[in-house]
């Protein structure tokens, strides 16, 4: 990877004064859609009531960051700092924060868990009524921002903005993680691993001895494969049109790999032929509506469950009612179905129990200055798993 020359070697700031001062730091700012991010000096205001200022140590790049940059043309979305899969350390806390203190290791959360709303209290859903996902899903940022740059307000993508040396998040949007947690791995809990692993464990509820198919082997799909394996599936078909992705999928538990381009019949038919009528569970991790249909129709009649994970709000999708009436279930999964603070705690325990192979998810290691190179790789489909951007020294 050719390194872009660093634009800023370091920034001086007052990080030890209890969060009363503005921090000037480096961030990758998206000023316009379809244009490279610009490494800028931004101002990060001190945390206000119920907020926490976090020093970001590591972050990944996710397809949903690119969805915002290239597909989501909402006029109020920009400028913004992208990034929603990160890990860091609490720098300071605002009034009313008791759950966190400076020095805590934390994961910023792209969806909220207030603990008080109808949905949090129900115990049946992770669709908290607070935060951008509930209140501004089209704009994909929180109305409140603590960032400015060149005299302009800069929005915080998904309320997190991990492509910055510092960010400020609401207490509903932050989870504590064990002091021993490796920040160069657990940033994956912010999106890819929670989303894919939880889709298998919580949303599909994969059962021991079952047959599963995972469509799309990016980081989310790989995590879904790992979830199917840990749930005890006996067959896990990993499906992708890029065979370069198969080795990682096998390392995480795929028993079989399928490239739909190798067949002259639909992949749903290929899977039906291999499984005596269809898989028990399918998990779609591409955001492509044609793939969603294939995954659904690859399920067995009677009890097959198909879970849509890949995010898009741009296209309709379709199948035939007879497919549902034949006993299949088609459902969606947000952030793996976890209430996010609880999810980070669960995933932390699974990591401690050595049930998660997080090293398989890191395909590239870069610095924030190289973020545009990473975006190009992702656009070209050469982003074989996730990534690790080191924002501050580990
Ligand atoms: C996102 C999808 C939109 C809601 C927050 C999480 N998942 C992956 O990037
Ligand atoms: Zn994501």
From TrEMBL:
PROSITE patterns: ADH_ZINC. GO terms for cellular component: cytosol. Keywords: Metal-binding, NAD, Oxidoreductase, Zinc. GO terms for biological process: formaldehyde catabolic process. Pfam families: ADH_N, ADH_zinc_N. Its cofactor is Zn(2+). InterPro entries: ADH-like_C, ADH-like_N, ADH_Zn_CS, ER, GroES-like_sf, NAD(P)-bd_dom_sf. Residues 32-381 form the Enoyl reductase (ER) domain. SUPFAM superfamilies: GroES-like, NAD(P)-binding Rossmann-fold domains. GO terms for molecular function: S-(hydroxymethyl)glutathione dehydrogenase [NAD(P)+] activity; zinc ion binding. Belongs to the zinc-containing alcohol dehydrogenase family. This is Enoyl reductase (ER) domain-containing protein. It comes from Salarias fasciatus. The lineage of its organism: Eukaryota, Metazoa, Chordata, Craniata, Vertebrata.
């Amino acid at each position: 990877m050719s390194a872009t020359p660093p634009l800023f070697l370091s920034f001086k700031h007052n990080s030890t004064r209890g969060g009363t001062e503005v921090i000037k730091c480096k961030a990758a700012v998206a000023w316009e859609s379809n244009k490279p991010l610009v490494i800028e000096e931004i101002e990060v205001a001190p945390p206000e009531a119920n907020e926490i200022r976090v020093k970001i140590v590591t972050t990944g790049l996710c397809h949903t960051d690119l969805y915002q940059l290239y597909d989501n043309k909402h006029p109020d979305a920009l400028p913004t700092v992208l990034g929603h899969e990160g890990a860091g350390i609490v720098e300071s806390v605002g009034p009313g924060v008791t759950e966190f203190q400076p020095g805590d290791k934390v994961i910023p959360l792209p969806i909220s868990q207030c603990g008080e709303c109808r949905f949090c209290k129900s115990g049946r859903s992770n669709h908290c009524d607070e935060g951008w996902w509930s209140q501004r899903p089209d704009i994909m940022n929180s109305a409140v921002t603590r960032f400015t740059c060149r005299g302009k307000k800069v929005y915080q993508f998904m309320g997190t903005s991990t492509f910055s040396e510092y960010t400020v998040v609401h207490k509903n949007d932050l989870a504590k993680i064990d002091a021993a947690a490796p920040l160069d791995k657990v940033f994956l809990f912010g999106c890819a691993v929670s989303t894919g692993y939880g889709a298998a464990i919580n949303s599909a509820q994969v059962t021991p001895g079952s047959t599963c198919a995972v469509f799309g082997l990016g980081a989310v799909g790989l995590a879904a494969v790992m979830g199917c394996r840990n749930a005890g599936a006996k067959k896990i078909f990993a499906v992708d049109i890029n065979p370069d992705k198969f080795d990682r999928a096998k390392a995480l538990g795929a028993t079989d790999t399928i490239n739909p381009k190798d067949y002259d019949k639909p992949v749903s038919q290929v899977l039906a032929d291999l499984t005596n009528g269809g898989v028990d569970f399918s998990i779609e991790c591409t955001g492509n509506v044609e793939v969603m249909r294939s995954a659904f129709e690859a399920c067995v009649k009677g009890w097959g469950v198909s879970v849509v994970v890949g995010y898009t709000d741009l296209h309709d999708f379709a199948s035939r009612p007879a497919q549902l009436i034949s006993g299949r279930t088609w459902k969606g999964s947000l952030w793996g179905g976890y209430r996010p603070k609880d999810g980070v705690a669960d995933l932390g325990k699974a990591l401690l129990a050595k049930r998660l192979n997080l090293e398989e998810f890191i395909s590239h290691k870069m610095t924030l200055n190289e973020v545009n190179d990473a975006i190009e790789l992702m656009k070209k489909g050469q982003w074989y798993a996730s990534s690790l951007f080191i924002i501050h020294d580990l």
